[in-house]
Amino acid sequence: MDLLELLVFVGLLAAAWLWLDSLKAREIGVAAAQQACAEEGLQLLDETVVIRALRPARDDAGQLRLRRVYGFEYSDNGDNRRAGSVTLVGHVVEMLHVRPNLYVVPKTTTLQNHDDTLH
Known about the structure:
By secondary structure, the chain is α+β, with helices and mostly antiparallel strands. It has one domain. It is built from two helices and five strands. It has a five-stranded antiparallel beta sheet, covered by helices on one side.
């Protein structure tokens, strides 16, 4: 195996890891959006989130992680669409935005426990 083949192989492995890691993070983002909408009496539209941003960031322990910002839409009366967002650092919900309020989600919520069950 020459150097070019090795680099292509490592690149494919990195792409596969990013894809699988993103699926897990997206699932956590959907669960966070569903929970926030349920707590606020809102309807999560389309039952999904969409990636808006992806960049490296440091977590509370100083380790390098990926910060993902997902957008979603919800309705408060069934006739409209409003935008919300959920931000994850690694697989931990950092903040969630619904209505005009900004919610900072503590790391000890059931969302982190949901993350642990996915391993």
